[in-house]
Amino acid sequence: MKLKTAAWSVGLPLCLFSAASIGQEYPTRPVSVVVPFAAGGPTDTMARLLAQQFQASFKQTVVVENAPGAGGTIGVNKVARATPDGYTVLLMHIGMATAPALYKRLPFDPLKDLEPIGQVADVPMTLLTRASLPVTGMKDLVAYLKANRDKTTIANAGLGAASHLCGLLFMSSIGIDLTTVAYKGTAPAMSDLLGGQVDILCDQTSNTVSQIKAGKVRAIGVTSPKRLTQLPDVPTLAEQGLSGFELNVWHGLYAPRGTPRPVLERLNKALNATIRDATFNARIAEFGAVSVAPALATPEGLRGHLAKEIALWGPIIVKAGQFAD
């Protein structure tokens, strides 16, 4: 018995030293940030800015890996099933909270199969129309839709995408159902809006500010509670009568379940350094995004917010009746 006690007492410090050393040494090779959407989209843009900051913090290569499909669930599942060593992490937006209601056979549990690292940033959205649509604001748009609901199309980047959610909320708010056209990513949806093949798109400002400023699309309103400094002439949707229509696309960073605690702490340290970095904040401000408060850039902050958002969006999606197989 004494020998066993002695062996345990010697082994414990070695175990603690081993765990601590993992965090100190990590990372020793390139880290992949998986984006579950196509390259060129708004979440991809955010991920690439994040990767630049992490690369400087880690002194290691940080690459963005696009794994699109099924509203982001393919990419999320890829990370959920990855080796839990910190070398594969996930950047996912609000779609993490809507997937449980949208998909009947979801291959992962957002609250159980991933380790939350922390929230990153919030991105407002803009409601757009093709430039040739004969409307100038929300009042005109609603009148046009009432008269042309059967031949008006609203695009999105795929089931579960932020543009899909915004479209659902918009149609619910005005009480008009439109023909929905789903694409495999934001880029093709925007391309068809620019070409006039679809009429409406609600998308993140990271993908719309430049198109609005160039006059290639018409901005009806922003989903933020106040006007954006990047688009001072674009009113909020609330200003135009859609009270309570506020939608920010929040982004969270995750690792596979079972990732060692010291590695998660190292990732969280890099995340918090990023949201405090002036260059990062200036870059994301260019498209209307803002870093989250420090209390949200924590595992606890992201876990709690995710749970609340799952409870919020579930009833909205069920009421809309738009589900994946």
Describe, in plain words, how this protein is organized in 3D.
This protein has 325 residues and is of the alpha/beta class. The protein has two domains: 27-123 and 249-320, Bordetella uptake gene, domain 1 (D-Maltodextrin-Binding Protein, domain 2), CATH 3.40.190.150; 124-222, D-Maltodextrin-Binding Protein, domain 2 (3-Layer(aba) Sandwich), CATH 3.40.190.10. Helix content is 45%, strand content 19%. It contains eleven helices and ten strands. The chain has helices at residues 2-25, 42-58, 73-80, 95-102, 138-148, 162-174, 186-195, 205-213, 261-275, 278-285, 299-320; strands spanning 31-35, 62-66, 88-92, 114-130, 153-156, 179-182, 200-204, 217-222, 248-256, 290-291. Helix 4 packs across helix 11. The protein is globular and about 65 Å long. The N and C termini lie far apart (59 Å). Residues 1-10 and 14-19 have low confidence and may be disordered.
How can the largest sheet be summarized? 10 strands, mixed
Number of helices: 11
Number of strands: 10
CATH topology of the largest domain, which one?
D-Maltodextrin-Binding Protein, domain 2
Total number of distinct structural domains: 2
What low-confidence regions span 5 or more consecutive residues with pLDDT below 50?
1-10, 14-19
Question: Could you tell me how far the N terminus lies from the C terminus, measured between alpha carbons in angstroms?
Answer: 59 Å
